Amino acid sequence: MSDQINDSRRQFLSKAAIAGSVTIAPGVFLHQTAQAKPDEKAVTSATRWGMLIDTDKCSKGCTDCVDACNQEHALTGFDRPETDAQYIRKVSLVEKQTGHEISLPLMCQHCEKPPCVDVCPTGASMKREDGIVLVDKHICIGCRYCMMACPYKARSFVHETIENQTLSAPRGKGTVESCTMCTHRVDKDGIPACVEACTDENHNAMTFGDLNDPESTISKELKKHGGKQIRADLQLNTGVRYQGL
Amino acid sequence: MKKIEYTRIKGHSLAYYGLLAGLGFIILLGLLATWYMEHNGHYVTGMSNQIVWGMPHVFAIFLIVAASGALNVASIASVFGKKIYDPLSRLSALLSIALLAGGLVVLLLDLGRPDRLIVAITTYNFKSIFAWNIILYTGFFAIVGAYIWMMMDHNMHKYKKKVGLTAFVWRLILTTGTGSIFGFLVARSAYDAALMAPMFIIMSFAFGLAIFILVLMAAYNWTGRELGDAVIARLRSLLGVFVAAVLYFTAVYHLTNLYITEHHGVEQFILRDGGIYTNLFWFGQVLIGGLLPLALIYAPGVKTCRKTLALISTMIIVGGMCQIYVIVIGGQAYPMELFPGYEVSSTFFDGMVNSYSPTLPEIILGLSGMAVSILLVSFAIKALSFLPTSLADSIADPHAAK
Amino acid sequence: MTRFLRLSLILTGLIMLFPSQGMAETPFPIIHEPEGKECVEDEDDMRRNHMNYIRHQRDKTMREGIRAESEGSYSLSKCIDCHVEANDKGVTPTHNDKEHFCVACHEYAAVQIDCFQCHADRPQKNIKRSSSDQALKDQLQEMLAAKDMGDVQ
User: Fold this and answer.
1) pTM, rounded to two decimals
2) What is the CATH number of the domain that holds A173?
């Protein structure tokens, strides 16, 4: 499996190299210039992974990122939308005053100060040093307090027995889960499945990178054009930012 | 005032064993319901990714809140020195432990992974109010347990007051913790209010006392022990104060929210457009749980009528359940404001009022928690001397004619 | 007298909980020995300590992002890759089957395994999975379409 990932990554990278310019997929690759994390080293706070979403490039009805995520994590639907897990979802907005329409993907915002981590009684809800917020399903007791606390409704509870999990996305009944920013890819210098799909399909609405590295495309882009946080009033300093909102 | 004599109930009657068997049966059904929910997964319940806490939590929170309130009677006696409540202290402490146990059982059995109880009690995140509550609940058992010991053991009487004070303070903190489970949720507009904690304390006074009155009257009625009008009248007027206070806090909570534009949406939802939640609020919480009991409590002519008092207490319990239902479920049903000024729609029910209909297993699980509480009390008053042999006016009322 | 009766009843009940005859008959599990490869530790060591090894690794991977792929590192998925194979009928046992490598021993030792409620119990190559879950995809598209029809609150 890991070989497969590496292979696809390699292919992907070479495709990009042939395309010849890093500006084609802004920010997606630039973190590669930073030192790749050796396998045996723990992640550090020197890096803070983040994502920038340009809603102007995100078209209504397109679910490429969602499909890629579902496939990556083998999220199976049971035809019960109210209890089926969704790590990432497409949200349509219509401004009441003007009728202006916006479409955007919404997932765990990977807050710097995540409410889900604060409320979790066992510490299962946790933030890695590199800013990725995860659920440690080994010690999650399924109390769902994090779901009550999350301002983004980003978490799902596994409502049924799960079989046939993938290697990279262990998931099971009775625990809470959410977007992992594809840690299994990121830890091997890859990019999240949703960003990859969005870029592969040439929508280029999603950029992934290191917010702590001023030279990364995501940082440069944010510095130049800015990016909003959803519910910025809560001052959670989210890792996912939006443009055109 | 004479010296109070406490005796165990005989508990040999068919009715007593019938009661135990009935409660045991409900508990068995509750375990079956749990097995059903845990085996299949929570999709068989009404709960979903939108309404993540459902009926079990309504029952559990009600019982936990009522637990700390049930201790009130003992606290008034030991901390505030009101003599008439003194003979009721043992039962009060017992009931509070029993209610807490019942509530926690429900909470535990609804977890996604109840088999990981050991994780819950060994791994703590000290920033979590939930983790603090686990410590507060455990401490409550220990302190109130010690309190009962101090009351029952003549050699330990001298510590009774101090331990009683500790229990009083502890239980205030405990209910603050329970209220803060909601008060600390910044995400949802129905919660996120410091007022939640004091409101939960006042609610606990009313719910706990209502249950205490029912248990007391039932125990004395069924065992043929004498329960004088003096005690009844006192408890009744105390209940009136608490019910009025709950109404007051409810009013302040909603008035504050109505003043804040950001909260207009959720207020409109609960007070006017929320359908079931609006009905439960006005008819359940305000009318049945507040105004009607108040009217009956202060109605002339029925001051010592036991049946009226039982009715009042029952109404307060029903109203209390409605109130918690509106807080827990209503608060989740109202969509979270992620994008102010926009109409929101998605595949994940954003921007929509979430629907919830409790399923039978959830309700049975909740009821079985109540059964656990009553079973514990029924068993304990047979095993140990919790109840005064008589609470006739001549014995219980310190001002009774000598 | 009643007390004695009660006591003896309880004792009898307790004794019946332990079927002493059945114990000797429990067959030793058939353990599938993978060929060719060496395990990361000696067999005896693994039998005693495998849970500690993977448990230690689990926290490192989960919390620190250390996904050691190097030779000799512990990894549940590597255990599975070697030890769980298709049987002669071409079927790979799942954690619900007694012939599953982990299950065979754990049943014998009466120790519950918690791993496979979340983790894959078979090598990925032996798991048949539709390339992308069409049902979920359709469901999402359907809901998106419904929203466009103006089914907005």
Assistant:
1) 0.88
2) 3.30.70.20
Tell me the per-residue pLDDT of A174-200, one tens digit each, with 9 for 90 and over: 999 999 999 999 998 999 999 999 999
**pLDDT tier at B72 (50, 70, 90 boundaries)?**
very high
Contact present, A228 and A69 (Cβ < 8 Å): no
Kindly determine whether residue A119 and residue B130, on different chains, have CB atoms separated by under 8 Å: yes
ipTM score of complex: 0.90
The CATH superfamily assigned to B6-396 is: Formate dehydrogenase/DMSO reductase domain (1.20.1630.10)
Tell me the three-class secondary structure of B289-346, residue by residue. HHHHHHHHHCCCCCCCCHHHHHHHHHHHHHHHHHHHHHHHHHHHHCCCCCCCCEEEEE
- Provide the number of structural domains found in chain A: 1
Q: Domain residues for A22?
A: 2-243
Sheet with B342-346, strands from edge to edge, namely A101-106, A89-95, B342-346
| pLDDT tens digits, one per residue of B220-261 | 999 999 999 999 999 999 999 999 999 999 999 999 999 988
Put simply, the answer to whether A70 touches C137 (Cβ < 8 Å) is yes
Chain B residues within 8 A of A139 when measuring between CB atoms: 116, 119, 123
Mode of pairing for the β-strands spanning A176-177 and A156-157: antiparallel
Whether residue C144 is predicted with pLDDT greater than 90 in this model: the reply is no
What residue type is assigned to position B209 of the chain? L
| Domain map (residue ranges) of chain B | 6-396
Q: Is the pLDDT of residue A26 over 70?
A: no
Return the number of CB contacts < 8 Å for A and B. Answer: 169
Nearest to A77 among C60, C133, C147 (CB): C133
Q: How far apart are CA B296 and CA B305, in angstroms?
A: 11
